[in-house]
Amino acid sequence: MTNWIEVTMRVDGESAEAVAEVLQRYGHQGVSVEQEGITPDIWDEGEVPPPQNLLVRAYFPDDHRAIDTKKQLETALGHMNMMYPMPDPEYTIIKEEDWAEAWKVHYHPLRVGKHLLVRPLWIDVDPEPDDLVISLDPGMAFGTGTHPTTQLCLEALEDLTQSNQEILDLGCGSGILSIAAAKLGAKQIVGLDIDPIAVKATLENAEANGVAEQIIAEEGSLEAVIKSGRQYDFIVVNILAKIILQMTENNLGDTVRPGGLAIFSGIIDTQVEEVEEALRKTGLEPYARRQQGDWFLIEAKRPTD
Length: 305
What we know:
Layout: E1 4-11, H1 13-26, E2 32-35, E3 54-61, H2 66-81, E4 90-94, E5 110-112, E6 116-120, E7 132-136, H3 148-160, E8 166-170, H4 176-183, E9 188-193, H5 196-208, E10 215-219, H6 222-228, E11 232-238, H7 241-248, E12 256-268, H8 272-281, E13 285-292, E14 295-301
Parallel strand pairs: 6-7, 8-9, 8-11, 9-10, 11-12
Antiparallel strand pairs: 1-3, 1-4, 2-3, 5-6, 12-14, 13-14
Helix pairs in contact: 1-2, 7-8
């Protein structure tokens, strides 16, 4: 039986994206990013403090490759440290039977926006009458609601979702944003992800939330949408900024119907203007920004003309 090594790094918002990208190279089935310092009672206070530090975690097998994996990881972090101070990675041995469950002790119910309450499936909550409860078991898929990028998307969805919309969730992860859109009344949501684990998590979480009929989750990417020629009233993209930039070079704007909306998250303050310019070149018009700490969300629309 193979044990696993959990590598954790405590970083600020500015370096979280870069650290997550490095850990992604060596981690098994992606990385998790969560806000440090959310205690179990915080969610009930109605306000979550701005993130001071984020925890970026990844896992890799504790086998004959572990020493070499650590060496490669620390070499990559050393190069980053020359440009921006990096903390030392923390390593913890996790038993095989426990590794997929290890992060759950850090995951608690969380209020987002006006009426959204995100809770782990294994924790009971007592919601307010007007709460929309999103119950999640992300498994190894990205998306627990604790990261500022996801919270910004949830807030935007709460303000912008309409009952007649067909929505595309590019990079659906755990399905948290697709489920939120469904509970907010969207007509249909198509969730796409290149990771089959994410597709499975989205479908299972949609079923657990009673919105499976509104959500289609499939393995795929922007290329598949472009080839199909299908357009949507609203697209949601919560991915790294560099991936958004790549998408804009591949006709991303064509996925939005004339007059339709789009939101883009996963963008730090120094990347906003570059992303907005790229969105304009793909046929979208940025019109608003949302911010949490160093992270930004861009709201855009496709002109009707």
